[in-house]
Specification:
By secondary structure, this protein is α/β, with parallel strands linked by helices. The chain contains nine helices and 15 strands.
Length: 372
């Protein structure tokens, strides 16, 4: 009897809609809520926005035995829970909202506890098969652009540890609302790459999955895109090239990103076109909150068109069909490329919308085209 697994994560897919929908919703106190605040008197206040809740409490290691923390509900729907005399340390915690355990939606890596149901008969391109498996490492580096320590994931192919070969690198970016943990989990990047390599369809490479989730201060989110580029170019790439056996010329460096990651891919590669040989924009385009003509001017597309066309061996743009929520912004982006003579490929090979079903297939298709 075949094993049956389901593979989809609605929360992560919905999270990837953030850049497009950012200006279509009514602001709430949750937008600027800081969920954990340490006070001068040594207490710590935990906050959650739950305007329709009847009861809210806090549970976990953070709550001392025998103590009932003070709970206050504000008229704006924010619940504040105070832990007195909290000592330095790391604590597990969650809220209990109307009797239901709820992870902190504003907490670090909040999307990662999402359960992933798997439907998979073992024969899919993303299945875990009996093939040599690479390793996915969780690494930490210091970001000079953001002045903080950040996390990324790195896939290295089977046999990397026993080899001395230098490999090309693909930088693979998730979408809005996700973290660097998205491609390794719901994206199934490791299994996809393991299978392709075992079948001889891709060349050995290193795949770096950075965290594109950066707090934005501007309403148009332009600072998020710029900060990501500065982080990638100034810290992520130097970190990878210092700690892994990498080929460091542009023809052995590729970048691909979905949704918000597609915006970040354009932001990075058009500003640094001489540093990348392969570029794939998946369900994306220019930042929809900005004027596209001004974006073309900012990237000097008219002046740099010939140089961009020469540098990119492949510049591909894909969408998940007409139901993909970035379809309109993608079309507008293509018109700008046409106007200024930027060579690119465009396709809609999967009519599965703005979903991980589309993007897993995109990775399966693009990886074999790299570094040939």
């Amino acid at each position: 009897m075949k094993q049956c697994h389901l593979l989809f994560a609605i929360l992560l897919a919905v999270g990837s809609l953030l850049p497009v929908q950012a200006q279509r919703r009514t602001p709430t106190p949750n937008d600027t809520l800081q969920s954990i605040r340490r006070q001068a008197d040594g207490s710590v206040v935990f906050s959650i926005y739950a305007p329709k809740a009847r009861t809210v409490s806090l549970a976990g290691d953070i709550v001392p035995w025998g103590q009932r923390p003070e709970v206050k509900e504000n008229p704006n729907g924010v619940w504040n829970i105070t832990i007195k005399d909290a000592q330095p340390g790391a604590y597990r915690y969650h809220y209990v909202v109307d009797g239901l355990n709820v992870y902190d939606p504003k907490g670090a890596f909040a999307s990662e506890p999402s359960a992933i149901a798997e439907i998979d008969d073992g024969n899919e391109f993303f299945s875990m098969k009996d093939v040599p498996h690479g390793a996915i490492a969780q690494r930490y580096y210091y970001s000079k652009a953001l002045n903080t320590t950040r996390r990324l994931h790195v896939w290295t192919p089977a046999g990397y540890e026993n080899s001395k070969q230098k490999l090309p690198v693909l930088y693979l970016v998730h979408g809005g609302g996700d973290t660097d943990n998205a491609w390794p989990t719901v994206g199934r990047a490791g299994f996809i790459l393991d299978n392709l390599l075992a079948e001889g369809k891709i060349l050995p490479m290193i795949v770096v999955m950075p965290n594109g989730n950066i707090p934005a201060q501007r309403q148009d989110m332009s600072d998020l895109m710029e900060n990501f580029t500065n982080d990638l170019m100034g810290s992520v790439i130097p970190y990878i090239e210092s700690n892994y056996r990498c080929l460091t010329d542009k023809d052995h460096r590729a970048m691909a990103g979905l949704s918000m990651g597609g915006i970040q891919t354009l932001e990075t590669t058009l500003a640094h076109y001489d540093k990348f040989g392969y570029v794939f924009v998946l369900s994306g385009g220019f930042n929809p909150n900005l004027d596209y003509e001004k974006e073309a001017e900012r990237f000097h597309l008219k002046e740099n068109a010939a140089k961009i066309n020469k540098s990119f061996k492949i510049f591909a743009h894909t969408q998940g069909g007409s139901t993909d929520i970035t379809h309109v912004s993608g079309e507008r982006t293509n018109k700008i490329f046409d106007k200024y003579g930027i060579n690119y490929e465009y396709s809609e090979p999967y009519q599965t919308g703005h979903t991980w079903s589309t993007w897993r297939n995109n990775l399966k298709d693009l990886a074999p085209r790299l570094f040939r």
